[in-house]
Amino acid sequence: MDLSGFGRSMAPEVPLSLDFFADAAIAYVESLKWQAEIDLIGHSYGGEVALVMSARHPEKIRKVAVCGTNHGLSLQFW
For the chain, first and last CA: distance in Å? Predict the structure, then answer.
């Protein structure tokens, strides 16, 4: 999945944040009517998004793997 404003996708006209991207990714998964828990793989900023997704929606996430990711997230998630 390409994050809005990265790669070739257009940037949305709202403030970009980890919460925005995590919610957008969950909304995408829900739009697919996916029933099973998902496995996430995130690289760099995508890894941070994956960590936020798993913290905010643990019932939807089975496994998370991150690579080259900043671990400077707020301690409120842990």
Answer: 25
